[in-house]
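Why run this: before we spend reagent on co-expression, it is cheaper to look at a predicted model of the complex and decide which construct boundaries make sense. The entries below are exactly what would go into the expression plan.
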Amino acid sequence: MAAITLLEAIRQGLWEEMERDKNVFLLGEDIGAYGGAFKVTEGFLNRFGADRVIDTPISETAIVGAACGAAMMGMRPVAEMQFIDFISCCFDMLTNYAAKSRYRQGVGIPIVVRGPSGGGVHGGPFHSQNVESFFLNTPGLKMVEPSTPYDAKGLIKAAIRDDDPVLFFEHKLLYRNPKIKQEVPAGDYVIPIGKASVRREGKDLSVITYGAMVYTALDAADRLQQEGIDLEVIDLRTLQPFDREAIVATVKKTSKVIILHEATRTGGMAGELTAVINEEAFEYLDGPVTRVTSIDTPVPYAPPLEEYFLPQVEDVLKAARSLAAY
Amino acid sequence: MAAITLLEAIRQGLWEEMERDKNVFLLGEDIGAYGGAFKVTEGFLNRFGADRVIDTPISETAIVGAACGAAMMGMRPVAEMQFIDFISCCFDMLTNYAAKSRYRQGVGIPIVVRGPSGGGVHGGPFHSQNVESFFLNTPGLKMVEPSTPYDAKGLIKAAIRDDDPVLFFEHKLLYRNPKIKQEVPAGDYVIPIGKASVRREGKDLSVITYGAMVYTALDAADRLQQEGIDLEVIDLRTLQPFDREAIVATVKKTSKVIILHEATRTGGMAGELTAVINEEAFEYLDGPVTRVTSIDTPVPYAPPLEEYFLPQVEDVLKAARSLAAY
Amino acid sequence: MEPAKNLQLDFLYFMRLTRGLEDRIDNLLKQGKVVGGFFRSLGQEATAVGSAFALDKKLGDIVSPLTRDLGAMLVMGAKPREVFAQYLARGSSPSHGRDQNLHFTDLDRGFIGTISPLGALVAVMNGVVLAARMQGKKTVGMVYIGDGATSTGAFHEAANFASVQNLPLVIIAENNGYAYSTPTTRQMRILNLADRAKAYGLPSEIVDGNDVLAVYKSAQRAVARAREGGGPTLIEAKTFRMRGHAAHDNQSYVPKELLDQWRKRDPIDSFERFLRNEQVADGSEIEEVKTKVEALLADDLAWAESQPAPRPEDAAGGVYGGEFERALTS
Amino acid sequence: MEPAKNLQLDFLYFMRLTRGLEDRIDNLLKQGKVVGGFFRSLGQEATAVGSAFALDKKLGDIVSPLTRDLGAMLVMGAKPREVFAQYLARGSSPSHGRDQNLHFTDLDRGFIGTISPLGALVAVMNGVVLAARMQGKKTVGMVYIGDGATSTGAFHEAANFASVQNLPLVIIAENNGYAYSTPTTRQMRILNLADRAKAYGLPSEIVDGNDVLAVYKSAQRAVARAREGGGPTLIEAKTFRMRGHAAHDNQSYVPKELLDQWRKRDPIDSFERFLRNEQVADGSEIEEVKTKVEALLADDLAWAESQPAPRPEDAAGGVYGGEFERALTS
Ligand SMILES: Cc1ncc(C[n+]2csc(CCOP(=O)(O)OP(=O)(O)O)c2C)c(N)n1
Ligand SMILES: Cc1ncc(C[n+]2csc(CCOP(=O)(O)OP(=O)(O)O)c2C)c(N)n1
Ligand SMILES: [Mg+2]
Ligand SMILES: [Mg+2]
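The model came back. C-alpha cells follow.
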C-alpha cells in the first residue's frame, strides 16, 4: 500500500465507484480526452468509454441540468466544474432544481458536483474561491470538503452513494501536496457524510475548521504546544449538514473556540457555526467564539497580497493566545 | 401629505431620481408598457420614454450585465428582477463581475438590482425566497431591505446614488399593506445605507430583524409588554454592510438578543450577526443569542404549510420568554 | 394518412378536458378558492394535446410541460382531480400542498413538472433522455419552451447540449405572441422561433399550433426521428395566448384585432368543424365527448373540494433522503 | 481599396509586438517568474490586431478582448510594460497585483478587461454601448468570444439582447478549433460559428482570421454598420490555436497534421510575404518593424522586472467606493 495524494484518492474513489455501479457516470468540460484540467479523471475515458465519461460544451447549467435529469432516472452522475468558481453559472439549477426537488415533488436528485476549490496557488479572483456559503442557506443540498486522502476517497464514495445532491469541494492546494500523502486502503470504504473528525485532541482551546485550513490549525497547534496551549483541532469534513454533536462536544471540553476558514469573513460558515454554538452550548463558553478567516475582499492574485488575504498560522496563534488569556 | 404604501414610496423614489438625474434608467422584464409585475414602474414609460424604461427579453444575466456596462459609462441603472428568486439566474454576473470590479480594476459599478422578495403570499417555492444570504459572503455587494414607506423611499434613493452595486429587496407582503401606510415627504431625502433604526425602545431584550419581520417583532413586543417583558426592536434596513454599532449598542443595553429573520435558518444572516455579537459584545451577553427563523425547507405553497414554515409572533414570544428567564 | 377516428375523438376529448378544467379553475378563482396564480392555456390547447399524443407511453416516453401545457399532462395521465387539488392547495394533492399548479412529477406516467425559472427543464430533460439511452431504452423526451423563455441562457445551453449529444428530445417552442406583456418582436429580432434551431444545427418545423392534427403529425415526425437516433428537433407551434399572462392580467396591451383574429381560429371550434365537415364524427358524438368531460370534471372537482388542507406540521421534513419523513396527509 | 502603407506596417508592428511580447512571457515562464497561467495567442495575432484597427478611438470606441486578444489591447494603447507587470504580479501593474494577465481596464484608452467566467463580457459590453448611445455618443463596441464560449448562457442572452436593442456592437467570434481540449465539433453541431448569429437575426460574416487585411476589412464593414445604427454583427474569424490552452498544456490531443497545416498559414509570415510580394514594403522596412518592437519590449521588460511586488497590506481596501483606500504601491 503506497502513500497517495488527495487527488489520487479522489481518482481512486471515482474509479472504484464506476467499477462498482454502472449507473455512475461523469460529465464535465475536458474531463475525457484531456482527463480534466487537474487530471482527476485521467484514464477514465479509456476504461469507461465516452458514454460514461462525457466531455461537454462550456455550459455549467446544461451540465448540472443533465445530471439532475439523469439522476431522476436512477443514474448517479458526477459533474465536474473545471474550477469550482464556475458553479456560479449554475446557481439556479442547483438551488432551485436540485435542492428543492425532493421536497416539492418527492423525487431525490442524487448527483455530485465536484471541483477544485480554494486559494493559495495565485489563481486570482476567479480561480480561488470557496463557495460553500453561497449554498448554505439552501436546504436540500449537502456539502463536503475532505482534507486528507483517506477521507477524500471515503467521502467521494459516500457522496456518490448519497441520495441527495452533494457539492464536493477539492482544495487545489492539497491535490498534489506531498506532505499530506497517506496510505489509503485499496478496497471499498466509506466515510459517512455529516461526521467531523478530531484531527488533534487538546484540552485548552478548540479550532473548528475544514479543507486546507486543517493544516494551518495543526501547525498552529504544534507551535502553541510549546507555549503550553493545548489545541484541539476539529475537521468538519462535511459542511452541510455539519456535525453538531462534534461541535458541541469540543465546546464542552475546551470552552473556547476558534472557527477557522479560508472563505472570506462576512457571511462565511463561521457565522452559522457560532450561532449553533450559542444555541447549544452557550453556558459552556468561557470566551467569545472567535473567527479567523480571509479578509473581506476578492481573492487577490499577487503572492504577497494573497498571503495577506488568507488566514496564516500567525493569525491562529494570535487569536488563540488572546482567547486563552480571556 | 397623504399616507402612502411601501410600493408607492419606492415608485416615488425611483421617479424622483429619474427626474433628478438623467443618468438613472430602468431595465427589466415587463417594466415598461405593463409597468412591472407588481406595477412599481407604472406610468414610467409614458413619462420617461422607452430609452430610459427598457423592456428586456427574459435574460437576467443580460439585464444585469447591461446594467454593469452602462454603470461603467457613468449611468445609474436600476434593474428589476420580476421576482427576486430569479436573481439566481444572474448570480455569476453579480458576484463575479459587479462585486469584484472595483477591487480588481478600480472601476465601481453603481447599479441597483431590485425586486419583490419574501413569502407569506402563497407564492410557493420559487416566488417567495429571501436571497440575502446567497450574497452575504461576496465582498463588494451591498444589500438593503426597507420595512416602512419612509425608509423605502429614502433607501431606494440612497441605493441609486451609491457608488457600488446594491441589491434592494422589496417585501411583497408589505408592498400594499394598508396597515403600514405612512406619510412620506414629497421632496428629496435620503436614508443612509448602513444605518439601522430602533423601531421600539426597550430595556429587557433586543430583537434584531428586518423586512416584514419587523412587524412580527413589534406585535410580539406589544404582547410581551403585558407580561412585563420590554422588547427593543432593531430594524437593520441595510443587510450589507449591517450596522455594527447599533447591534453592539442594543446588546450592551439589554444583554439578551433574538435575531429574527424570514430566510431559512441554516446559513441565514442570523449566523453572521451572532458571530459579530460574539466578537464585539460577548461580555455583555446574559444569554445565548437566539435565532427565530423559517424552518430549513423550501418555501411551501399551501397556506397552513407556509404559516408553519414562517416565523410567527408566537415563535418570538416563546423565544423571548425563554431568553428572559435565562 | 389521417389518424383513426377514435384517436381524433381523443384529441377532442383532451382539448375539451383541458378547457373545461381551466374553466372550472377560473370559477374557483372567482370564488376565491384558488391559492396563488392561475396561468391558463385558452387558445393553445391543440399544441399541448397534439404534441403529447405523438409520444408512446409504452416505450417510456416522458414529457415536461409548462404551466400552459395542461393538455399534455392530461394526455400522459394526470387526473383532473390532481390538478384541482393542486390549485386548491390540498394536502392530498400530488405535491401535498408543497408546490403549485402543474409542478408535480410522475415518472411512471411519464411526466415531469416544470419549475418557475424558465428554461431549466430543457436542461433537465436532456439528462432524462441521456439516462434512458444509457439504460438501453427507446425513450423519447418532449419538452416545451415559451417564446420568451428561449431568451434564457438555460435554454441555449440545453438546446446546444441536446444537439451535441444527439439526444432523443423534441422541443416544442410555443410561440403564443407574448411573454407576459412583452410581444415576441421585442423578445427577439427573428420572426420565427424555428430560427433559434439554426444556432444548434437542429432540424426544425413550423406548425399551426391551433391545428391539433398538424401538431400531432409534426410531433410524430420529430418523435420518430428521435427514436431512430436522429437526434433532437425543434418544432415551433404558432398559436396565441387568449388570456392575460395570469388571471390578474387583463392583457390590455394586446391589440383587440389580434385577439379577434385568433378567436376565429379557436383550436376546439375549428377541430369540431373539421370533424363534422370531414364526417369523422357527427353532432351527437361530439356532444358525447362534452358530456363525458363534464361528468369527469364534476366528480373530480367535488372530490378535490372535499379534501382537507395539509396539516401545518407537514411543512417540515422531506428535504433530504432517509430523513424522518412524516406520513403526509393522505 | 487597400489600407495605406503606414497602416499596413502598423498591422505588422502590432502583430510582431504581440508575438514578441508573448515570446518574452514564455521565457519569463521558463524562468519561473510568471505568476499563474499564461494563455498565448500564437497564430491568432491577425484576428486581434486586424479587428481592433477597425475601431476609432476618437469616437470613443471600446473593445473588450479575451486573454488571447493581446493584440487588440496593444492596438488600443495598452503598453507592453503593463502587460509584463501584470504577468509578473508587480505592485505597479495596472491591477496593482490584484488581478491577472489582461484583466485590466482603461475606459479612456478604450479597453475593458475580461473576467474568467466566459461570455460575461458580451453582456457587459451591451451596457457600455447602450449607455454611450443614450449619451449621444457615436461609440461602437467590440467584444470577442471563443468558439467554446458561445455555448454559455451568458453569450446567448447577451447576443439576443444586443440584437433586440439594435446595439452598436461587433462580436468577433474566434473559431480557433478548440476550447481547451474540446474540438469545436464536440462543442456544437454546426460547422460555422456564424450560424449562431441566425438565432438572433444578426448579420454575420466569415473571415480568414489569419489574414489581417481580411479581418480588418470585415471588421470595418461591421463597425460602419454599427456606427450608422445598423446594429450588431457577428464576425467569425477562422483561425487556429498554435499552442496548448495554457502553458501547462502540450495539446497532445491536437492532430499533428492540423498543426502543420496551420503553421504554413502563420499570420505574420504570410503578411510579411504579402507586403514584399505586393511591394508594399521592402525587407529593410520589415526588419525595421522588428527592431522597433525588440527595443520597446526590451525596455518595457526591464522596467517591469525592476518593479517591486505589491505590499502585502495593499490586499485590503478598495472593495467599496468611498472606503478608506490605501495609497497603492505606485
Ligand atoms: C428566469 C425567469 N425569469 C423570469 C420569470 C418570470 N416569468 C414567468 S412567466 C414569464 C413569461 C414567459 O413567457 P413565455 O416563455 O413566452 O411563455 P408563456 O407565458 O407565453 O407561455 C416570465 C417573465 C421566470 N419565471 N423565470
Ligand atoms: C463559465 C466558464 N466555464 C469554464 C471556464 C474554464 N475555461 C477557461 S477557458 C476555457 C476554454 C475556452 O475556449 P474558447 O471559448 O474556445 O476560447 P479559446 O481558449 O479557444 O480562445 C474554459 C473551459 C470558464 N472560464 N468559464
Ligand atoms: Mg409566450
Ligand atoms: Mg477556442
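The first helix of chain D runs from residue 5 to 30. Strands of chain D lie at 62-64, 141-146, 169-175, 178-179, 182-183, 204-208, 233-238. Bring this page to Monday's planning discussion.
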